[in-house]
Amino acid sequence: MAARLQVSRRQRATPYSERVEALGVSGFSVVNHTILPKGFRKTVAEDYWHLKTHVQLWDVGCQRQVALQGTDAAKLAQLMTPRDLRKARVGQCLYAPMIDAEAKMLNDPIILKLAEDYYWFSIADADMLLWAKGLAAGLGLDLSIDEPDVWPLAVQGPKSDDLVVRVLGEQVRDIGFFKFMVCDFEGHDLVVARTGFSKQGGFEMYPEGFSLGTRLWDALWQAGADFEVSPGCPNLIERIEGGLLSYGNEMTRDDNPLECGLEQYCQLDGSIDYIGRAALQQIAETGPERLIRGLISDAEACPACQHPWPVMHDEQQVGYVTSAIWSPRFERNVALAMLDRGYWEAGLEVRVRSSDGLERNGVISYLPMPD
Amino acid sequence: MAARLQVSRRQRATPYSERVEALGVSGFSVVNHTILPKGFRKTVAEDYWHLKTHVQLWDVGCQRQVALQGTDAAKLAQLMTPRDLRKARVGQCLYAPMIDAEAKMLNDPIILKLAEDYYWFSIADADMLLWAKGLAAGLGLDLSIDEPDVWPLAVQGPKSDDLVVRVLGEQVRDIGFFKFMVCDFEGHDLVVARTGFSKQGGFEMYPEGFSLGTRLWDALWQAGADFEVSPGCPNLIERIEGGLLSYGNEMTRDDNPLECGLEQYCQLDGSIDYIGRAALQQIAETGPERLIRGLISDAEACPACQHPWPVMHDEQQVGYVTSAIWSPRFERNVALAMLDRGYWEAGLEVRVRSSDGLERNGVISYLPMPD
């Protein structure tokens, strides 16, 4: 299903929306009340090869920041995630599941620690500002919580460093993985992080103010002509193969972080306090009842997965597919699936009942998928 | 700006999505992670006359319910709104602003009181579930908070009663304004409320379960052929003339309920406790600094308002337009505007700088606009 999207004040355009329109954006999604490009003139497969070879600018202005600042900012940040933030340093980016009191997934932001009392949560699609404000009001915490006028812009692909150097200088080569640096752009502070929703390398930048964002896009675009710079967006083939999960697709409020394979981001020894700890410890005692894995299946290209598709073993449903697409590299369909305990071992043969009425043979895979 | 919308598990289809697609839906918006039809084959003006004359089925499955149930449900419900709920009765629907600790608008749901310890908040576009869960976790309240599998369907227009009677019986004529009744549909309980996002009369129905929703749509559709039943959606002309505000467009977290003209829904005498009371009482002492009004302007049809347009008086900006469209009834443009104190009196002449580069003469109007 696809139809025209109406943009209004409620459905925000970004500093890059006019640019991606001029470059032939073919569709949008909506994330955090903000539009996100979903494709350009190229097919998803052409875009996949381009992303793995060259460099792309991504309009990810929808990655809104929940900014915590003040006396209790560090306390609230820790309460909102099972990830241990005690050793986090200023300049660090931390992928962090957020859970509710029942240990259900609410979001999976990247936390940027800007100062000892200042954090940004760069969020996936849900109003985490309201969760933070609700907790702070209920607990009587002393801090400010707001959404700054920051419009993330990603540069992704193997030529990212060479492109960004031309605009922000050689210093950006020194930014470590999941670290950020405050650079200067046109006299303004610009947070530049070595992060992004692909496995092809690159940066996410956080310009403050609409017009600064547009000027940053233009500077990068003009600097990138001989790198074959292209507009881009999270690529479904690349992110499935890389095992990058999308909140709302692979994981929802029905799932806990152990089911989502995020145990490494969960401090379970009781040494820190966070919302949902008791529930999560209880789940950890017996282990999760299901787990997200990759799934590679035969036959012709599958349709888009708009509702979960049953994964069958013998005549029993043992899980469901949440995202799927044809991979030109595997020349098979690649998918992400939530699988019941006993049916998540790599190599297990299953069958997938997709919405086109076909039943495809498939095999379970670890994530990221093997090269 | 408009382009194709991508639907995925994250961007939910409703029980009615396939029906409205078959009926030629021309565009969607996204509300609460769910798609909302924004137009059909008719122009907005044709749709306006149809809505004022006949009856329409609206896919408003995006109006998600935040369900509070248990010991502290009534307590939390009252904490979340300045509206006095002390005299609310089971079976009543209450339009209720929701505010944060600074008295800023978070949402404007209709609350359905289902039992003394059971409330639904039928919400506009924001994850109020997270606000409720955050408050409850912070305050240590004892209740369950979730989003039930309920998919609202609206019947709007002057022939609504005659249509709904055919499916649910004569009893629905007795449902009072902003009251609801639990009817039987195919052996299932169905909440039917005399509410809706138009001023043309009608009902909102709350089927539980995807397939029950689809069957309810089909039953109403088949019963309505000789009433010229049509698919519809909130009509921008009708809602502006009627003074119906849209959260995210007319009001945001930058605004307080007094600025939004919602003082009648705010208990200010200190006799009840709610989040944001102190801040709201302080604002009420001096009165709001600005107020939402209608605005009727000359000249040719205006474009869609995607960013606020300046409202000028002499050479000074005195407010901004948030929604605007050509009205075939007034044969002028109708708009909603937030206006500074001293510039909100009906009859004041202003000028509007719209995004097409034109400056139109306008006049301030009370809401709803006069017939």
Structural write-up:
Two copies of one chain form a homodimer. Chain A is an alpha+beta fold and 371 residues long. The first copy, chain A, is 20% helix and 31% strand. Chain A contains eight helices and 22 strands. Chain A has helices at 17-22, 44-53, 73-79, 128-139, 160-168, 210-223, 236-242, 277-286, and strands at residues 4-5, 27-31, 34-39, 56-59, 65-69, 93-95, 98-99, 105-107, 110-115, 118-122, 144-146, 153-156, 180-185, 188-193, 202-206, 230-232, 290-297, 309-313, 316-327, 332-340, 349-353, 359-365. In chain A, the strands form five sheets. In chain A, strands 13-14-15-12-4-16 form a six-stranded mixed beta sheet, sandwiched between helices. A six-stranded antiparallel beta barrel of chain A has the order 17-20-19-18-21-22. A five-stranded antiparallel beta sheet of chain A has the order 6-9-10-5-11, covered by helices on one side. In chain A, strand 13 (180-185) and strand 14 form a beta hairpin. The longest helix of chain A is centred in the middle third of the chain and has 14 residues, at 210-223. The first copy, chain A, is globular, with a radius of gyration of 21 Å. The two termini of chain A are 32 Å apart. The mean pLDDT of chain A is 96. Chains A and B meet through strand 1, strand 2 and helix 4 of A and strand 1, strand 2 and helix 4 of B.
